[in-house]
UniProtKB/TrEMBL annotation, chain A:
Family: Belongs to the PP2C family.
Residue stretches making up the PPM-type phosphatase domain: 133-460
Name of this protein: protein-serine/threonine phosphatase
Extent of Acidic residues compositional bias: 87-98
Taxonomic path: Eukaryota, Viridiplantae, Streptophyta, Embryophyta, Tracheophyta
Catalytic activity, EC: 3.1.3.16
UniProtKB/TrEMBL annotation, chain B:
Alphabetized PANTHER family for the sequence: DOG1 DOMAIN-CONTAINING PROTEIN, PROTEIN DOG1-LIKE 1
Pfam families hit by this protein: DOG1
InterPro entries: Seed_Dev/Stress_Resp_Reg (IPR051886), TGA_domain (IPR025422)
GO biological process: DNA-templated transcription
Region (Disordered): 274-297
Bias type Low complexity, positions: 275-288
Domain DOG1: start-end pairs: 3-275
Protein name, entry field: Delay of germination 1
Gene name tied to this protein: LOC111043195
Molecular function terms from GO: sequence-specific DNA binding
Amino acid sequence: MVMASAGVNVPGGDEVRNPTAASASTPECRMRRRHRLEPQGSGDAAAAAAPGPSWVRRLRPAASRFSPSPSPSLSPSSSQSSADRPNDEEQEELDHEVEVELAPAGPQLEPGEAEGEPEAEAVAVAPQVWPVAFGSLSMAGRMRMMEDAVSLHPDLCTWAADGSPMHFFGVFDGHGGSHVSALCRDRMHEVVAEELAREGATFLRRRQESAASGSAAWSERAEEERAWRAALQRGFRRVDDMAALACACGRVARPSCSCPLAGTSSGIVGSTAVVALLVRGRLVVANCGDSRAVLCRGPAGTPPVPLSSDHKPNRADEKARIEAAGGRVVFNNGHRVRGILAMSRALGDRLLRPEVIAEPEITVTERTVEDECLILASDGMWDVISNDIACNVARQCLEDGNPPPADPTAGGGGGAPAAGVVVVAAREAEPRCLRAASLLARLAIGRETQDNVSIVVVDLKHRD
Amino acid sequence: MDMARYESCYRHWIAGQEAGLAELEAASANAAAGRATDAELRTVVERCMLGYQDYATRRRALSREDGVAFFAPPWCTAFENSVLWLGGCRPSLTVRLLYNLSGEGLEAQVEELLGGLSNGVIPTGALGITSAQLVLINDLHSRTVHQENALSDRLATLQEDIADRPLLPIVRQRELAAAARLGAAAAASGSCDGAARRRLRAARLGAADAEVDAALDSYKAALSRLLVEADELRMATARALATEILTPRQAVEMLAAGKHLHLSVRDWSRRREAAAGAQQQLGGQSAGTDNTVRPST
């Protein structure tokens, strides 16, 4: 099922947002990336600087970092500020990288508190900025065994066509054991990145051929989507193939693993996978199983937009597919394939083939500046919290910037200096995502969910 | 074995639980009224932790004499014994307790949040568990469950070993020897089966000796070591929560709730079993009690 969206790109660089640190740093990041890719960086800088005097002043120091011959019109004070600003940004980037590296380290939980770099789309007028910040929480909850896994990879790779960053977020809910979901956490992003690079190269070649032949049938947007879908489909298939070789000890090997745990790997071990790729102004979601991705659109009161559809065996089209494959859906404490598995698609689960397939359903959605956040979560949360409640809670958490009063674990800072305020504001987005994820998690536990709970909240708005 | 000393240790522990609960409840009331400093609350928490540690220390010494007694204590009700894990409270139960406590008041706060009445305060439940604390609690939960499972596996192995050497070979050997003697006795006495069977039973009753004692003592010693390690895990989990993750106020609330739960379940189950015992006594008297006394080894 392809979900169509009527959203259109709206320039995000209005005057109110310009003063924020994230917004101010965007042209710098864009210039840096573009400079690496094309020697015409200074030319683009000139074009981008065309609108508005404030933009001219802001971008000129950035351009001078890369231009071999800085403009003689720069005053000494401008040069000085140019020298200072890059240092601050480099320090922030270093912090960002450190945080990203630390995020996946936890074996049982993966709170992410690093902000992905804002994306910039090359346009003649003010550049489009698509912010991405995220937080996640993964809990065993009332279960003794933790079979969920979360994968957070902002800036996973860049899209070959224009160098835009691609951000990867995934939630994987294992069953019958944790090693398939662990495999997804550890390898899905790598495999998808490889496939995106491959599809990117193919895309460039086809675009070149189309331009050479003067074909009018070329549609950049449609071709990009085709490439992303193909990359995700192949990524899922490759990880599913690996799952058949995955041992309970975590090793993926052919011939089969010879460790003491090898014999314990049964055929009904698998995992859901809901994956979101964020690139420029588009959200690409691939789902397999009954975890879910929901887009929270603004303003308050706007209904949530499901970006995935749960693969339940009693979903009419899934049931038809299962029965066409010679299988049966049996009600056994819920609708189950062969009375065993409560979902119709999953990675792994060799013994339930051919009914249970690992092919993802993929949606591509246009972002709008009104979008609040994206929520990926396992059914441990969705079973007890509706899309509406989840979106309303997340929206409120992201909008209310004040930390809880007398937070014992927060670094206590009294009055921050003017410069510090900007830094704090720039970093505030990440804790808000974590607070949103943790509030949803504790609400799910409070509502007595009996499953693991894994939640990723991706903030899609600039926050002050 | 001196069962009275074991029961005395337990009674001391219960008295400590009751006194500790009173102290914690007073501290909680003072905190709510704004009359208690964090330092004072921390002192109360530490006293509670020392009480747990003292009990564990006493049990360690007594369990060296007879660890088996603590696994199904005759001084506890059957209900109390049914929820024991390796002689005490299951450590992961503490985390479950905390999850439920932290959920109190949350729905109401979320309603306020969604209704725009929260003034920007993010709901954290009545206990005020923060996001960062929740992450740490989940992490502790996973570690605790992992260690619990390891100790449970060791108990399972120990119990399965009962059907292995050294006990089973002794049983099989004695059985064969007794059968042989039965055959010889039967031949000598001219097929007097009744007398032979009585002699066989007497032989079994007198079978206890150094070899058997050694086997049983080995089992008891292993149980004793498990009890000590289980107590260490109980202590570690409670201490991590009360002194490393929670604030003093939160720790006071959690510890008070834990003691309250323990004492309530104990009182309720004792009351029910006392009533059941009275009923049984009445039934026994009217029906005519069976006076046969089962011989014990």
